[in-house]
Amino acid sequence: MAAVNPAIQPDVHASHDHKPHGFLHRWLFTTNHKDIGTLYLIFSLTMFFIGGSFAMVIRAELFQPGMQLVQPEFFNEMTSMHGLIMIFGAIMPAFVGLANWMLPMMIGAPDMALPRLNNWSFWILPFAFLMLISTMFMPGGGPQGGWTMYPPLALEGGMNVAFAIFSVHMMGISSIMGAINIIATILNMRAPGVDLLRMPVFVWSWLITAFLLIAVMPVLAGAITMLLTDKYFGTSFFHAAGGGDPVMYQHIFWFFGHPEVYIMILPAFGIVSEIVPTFSRKPLFGYQAMVYALACIAFLSFIVWAHHMFTVGMPLGGNLFFMYGTMLIAIPTGVKIFNWVTTMWGGSLTFETPMLFACAFVILFSIGGFSGVSLALVPADFQYQDTFFVVAHFHYVLVTGAAFAIMGAVYYWLPKWSGHMYSEKWGKIHFWSSAISVNLLFFPQHFLGLAGMPRRIPDYNVAFADFNMLSSIGGFWFGATQLIFVGVIIHCVYFSKQRATERVWEGAKGLEWTLPSPAPYHSFTHPPVVTAGMLAHGDVSH
Amino acid sequence: MAQTQGAYYVPHGSHWPIFGSFGLLGTLSGAALWMDDFVVGKFIMAAGIALLIVMLIGWFHSVITESVGGKYNQQVDGSFRLGMIWFIFSEVMFFGAFFGALFYTRMFAIPWLGGAGDGASTNEFLWPAFTAMWPSNGPADIGGQFTTMSPWGIPLLNTLLLLSSGVTITIAHHALRTGHRARLLTFLALTILLGATFIGFQAYEYYEAYHHYNLTLGSGIYGSTFFLLTGFHGVHVTLGAIMLCVIWARCAKGHFSRDHHFGFEAVAWYWHFVDVVWLGLFVFVYVL
Q: Which of A464, B48, B172, B258 is the most buried (most CB within 10 A)?
């Protein structure tokens, strides 16, 4: 198609390759996808530590049976805020940050499609979390009804209800605008030759995730708006006395909530699909199957929401439908797991830190997947519901799944971002320390749950003491280990002497590796000339 | 294929987004304070809304200046189109949540309270006197007896108004594409007039509901779904009408050419969207 095109249209202030001067001008007013990506990632890391410190409080309280350190109300605040902050503040912004940094580079674009909107998507977030965290200092404290905010319990809160709900509205606005931008970028900004079925899997995963975000974040906004009017304006959406139904909240919430779960894992699938082929020095096995599996998981995510509510008293037919629907998801997910393993099969494997995280992801995410399938069984779920088994399940998919993939991605692309190599030794120490401690943290929780220990309760029967202590030790260890992560990043960005090459990794493919390291301020001012071999991992011609 | 006609405009830094963030923070934290009976919230909210308005004016001013200055090529136009399409899709899903609540209560919650299916003992022990029906304000008769709006009065009239406004905006669009300026301005003004009449009728209907029908937000689940669905729709019509006014002014200033007028089209799409939502409301809230 088109040969070399003219540069992006020069703009008086900032379109030559110089960064804008002045700290505020650069970071507050930026329209640059890399700056905004950096902001997202730093924000996410900050929230990861704030949310993590809440988890430390939870594990400290649960270190021994009996009430030790905090009041039950504060414990409930910790569980609720930990969930809200980790989901909306840590995991989701980290993926959006990676998307911002990488998508334009991966598809050969000069920037995101709507750069000003991109700035606003990010800059809403700090304000939203300011509002959310401020509730903890208000009379009555922060939200205590769990991150799911089920009525009537969540409505019993004091001042925090309106603030928490409005802050979630702001996070939703941010997510929707970010997702719109990502879809517009992927569909409209690809360089000639980057056909849809030649895009890297990470780009595909974000295209589908962005669709999910636009489809379900407004539904969450609707649900919490109803909560708000129920509390402050006398409506009866969730009051049986007025003809409403508290269970209806759960239906609307989980119609958002289940796709939300995949919003937090599909980009991780994309990341692993980039890392595994690079360090296996082989094309990704079954590229098209990987893409279709992503689409299939996204579709199924819309028709399985009520598996979060099996014990709520739905008609039997409903329970059966949602059980079978949920078990179907194991098929496309299995396709992905097997394709990653098959990609490694017979490859010339090396285990740099990103690959270690990716391998751990494949194994540990599968454990979360298995416990997920057992939770999908209605009769089994009647026992597991609201026990630590559920906690173990979703932490395996979200910590050793999503968070590990994010860490792997940071190690994988950090040399491209900073122009320096990180310390492989300390990266590996970070990995092994994380991998061991996280299993010590969450694996015993399976046993606790099976033995009947309920979640979200600050005290427990002495019979659960040993496993809880082990879990807490793992928790403190895992939390402390993440300081190494910060150390490695700071060292790499500011102190590392080792320059990164253009391609960084021997087996890396894709347009982002054709740019110098560190990547220039504006990505592809000229659309690159693209050949099939440069793209996506794999022979995608058939 | 994308990126075939060169020069994608990447704007330099903008201070409007951060304005917007302060505006949102002020609006929402002010509203939250006000709802918790802190009078100061009212003023914080007003300041926040003022900031948001300034932000919208400033932001759109930049975009319009750039557009008129010829900085946007076909590809930028494509990004705007995708942005608007997916924004409208998100709006559809937002209304979907409230329609979902309406269907759920009518199909499940109310019948179960009346003893259907697994609800037999709920009905027997909690509310034996309640029989399932629609409209309903629930077994506890929340908000007291009320009367519903007849669909064949104002709502039917409003349906005709909005449908006609869909026609007039299409005529205006054709006029724009064929370069009939007077016809464009007339029919766009007519569209705004129809929209404004709709909003007026809706306000009158709310007045009637509160003062003569005892139908309020507090009238159980019927009042809740009725007012949130029609209320959010009304807000969207109002926003759409404001957008139409801006577009009318831009047409009058000659901002649009026969084949380069995405601002017009975006607002037309939005207007059709509120039109379609209204049809859903008319059928499921008023008629059925």
A: B172
Q: What residues of B are in contact with residue A8 (Cβ under 8 Å)?
A: 7-10
Give residues with Cβ within 8 angstroms of A175, minimum separation 6. Answer: A92, A96, A121, A213, A217
The runs of H, that is alpha helices, within B69-153 are 74-104, 110-113, 120-121
What Cα–Cα distance (Å) separates residue A169 from each residue in A172, A222, A234, A244, B267?
5, 9, 20, 23, 24
Contact B185, B264 (CB under 8 A): no
Q: What is the pTM of this model?
A: 0.95
- Top residue of A120, A155, A305, A521 to mutate, by most chain B CBs within 10 Å, is A120
Q: What percent of chain A has pLDDT over 70?
A: 95
Report the C-alpha gap between B175 and B258 in whole angstroms: 9
- Name the phi and psi angles at A536, rounded to 5: 15, 155
| Contact check, Cβ <8 Å, B90/A108 | no
Complex ipTM: 0.95
A252 within 8 A of A222, measured Cβ to Cβ? yes
Two tokens, residue B122: 């709920």
Burial class (CB in 10 A: 0-12, 13-18, 19+), A456: middle
| Facing residue for A124 by CB, picked from B9, B21, B91 | B21
Q: Which residue matches tokens 């990506």?
A: A37
Q: What's A492's DSSP letter?
A: I
Residues with Cβ within 8 Å of A458's Cβ and at least 6 positions away in sequence, in order, are A61, A62, A67, A70, A72, A75, A76
Q: What is the pLDDT of residue A24?
A: 85
Provide the pLDDT for residue A539: 57
**Residue A18 pLDDT:** 56
